[in-house]
Amino acid sequence: MSKKVRLRFAPSPTGGLHIGGMRTVLFNYLFAKHNKGDFIVRIEDTDQNRFVEGAEAYIFECLKWCGLEPDESVVHGGKYEPYRQSERKEMYKQYAEQLIVDGKAYYAFDTTEELEEKRKTVPNFQYSHASRSEMKNSLTLSDDETKKLLNSDASYVIRIKMPENETISINDMIRGEVSFNTSQVDDKVLLKADGMPTYHLAVVVDDYSMQITHAFRGEEWLPSSPVHILLWQYLFGLENMPQWAHLPLILKPDGKGKLSKRDGDRLGFPVFAMNWTDPKTNELTHGFRERGFLPEAFINFLALLGWNDGTEQEIFSLDELISTFSIERVHKAGAKFDYEKAKWFNHEWIKKSLASWLQPLVKEVLHKATVFVYDEDLLIKVIEMVKDRCVLFTDFVQQSSFFFAAPKEIDISSVKPKWNERKQQFFSELMRDYSLLETWKHDELEKTFTELAAATRMKPGEFLLPFRIMLVGGKFGPHVFNIAELIGKKETINRIKHTLQLL
Hints:
It is built from 20 helices and 13 strands. By secondary structure, the chain is mainly alpha-helical. Among the domains are: 87-247, Glutamyl-tRNA Synthetase, Domain 3 (Glutamyl-tRNA Synthetase, domain 3, Alpha-Beta Complex), CATH 3.90.800.10; 406-502, Arc Repressor Mutant, subunit A (Orthogonal Bundle).
């Protein structure tokens, strides 16, 4: 590749960032970095009616959390500024008007009401080569009538004039050669009545002006490809067109149809990278970050939704993904979303991470749960002890909060049915024996516990569950004697005493 590789992600600031969009970001980023190129984020805000306050900032926060920072953007700057389409408005109009001069586009003066009426009377109406001769446009009006309407400030759009019955082909980097018949494509609007371009015109002009070499986007844009190819041909020459790859869909867990936000709401899993609150409805959509995912695990999971490196390896760091990524190994077929697999990735990443690296993140999670960490060295030991038990990051609250504060609730119901005087006596004597110990280590604690159980002619296992519940409040946590060692002699005895008073 002699020309410097440049890829872009071009989101519209209309709401939260779906994982399909995040995977598009990731594949663009990986390909750019694998080829020592640039990754650009361009904001496509030409549809002002769908603009949502805060959505743009949210997009950049998602990218920052995932470690996929762009080289150029409205935040990062760059030599191809501005990176917000609404700030490039005048540029698009000149190209649209040039297409009219060249006979490749036309003015359309049809009102919204006229178009609605047409849609009512003609089933599946399309503004195309088959219907444009019946409509109010510069192809059916005389030059004088057209000029008169333009001079009177009449509302109009500019539409591409799709040729009739031509075959247009592209060589997609994932799908190979894909062909289209132009008669099946309508005359898309290029410039809207407010002077803003539609996606079709803006994406071509921007990709050219920003010297984009490769364009990766979702397969839902494949039907629009003939329009874009023609615009490249008409305006800049096909030799300047980026190489395209249309990424497969992320499918529902059952594989039937595209994954949607509603699926997440219905089945109880996140489909956005981060929490998103719609400022208009105040509706909260949950994200992977707040659900308890590490960004490394989220990226790892996304990368393997529709791609693999040809080996059995599943755990990849971002650097490893950059090193091994190849667009040719992206599958054509859709990839089924599997939330359990996503959690598996997260569990693996938590297990393999150093306790010292996890420490600030765990501390933040505990703080949000109003658990005060009073000893940083203790926190490191606790993380090392419990991280293998944590699937989601939020699991650290249940698995480690009892090391820093006595449990507020004790699961007495799990103890009471089999509770008796002998067990009461055992724990009373255990408090005494523990108070006399000079060495407070887990093996010494277990030895004392076992010897006392033997003296009562009962199996140690009969006392272990009550002991665990006394220390942590429930049926969870690591080895009970390790817990006792870390919380210390005084706290262990206090928790036993407290529970005995409840029984």
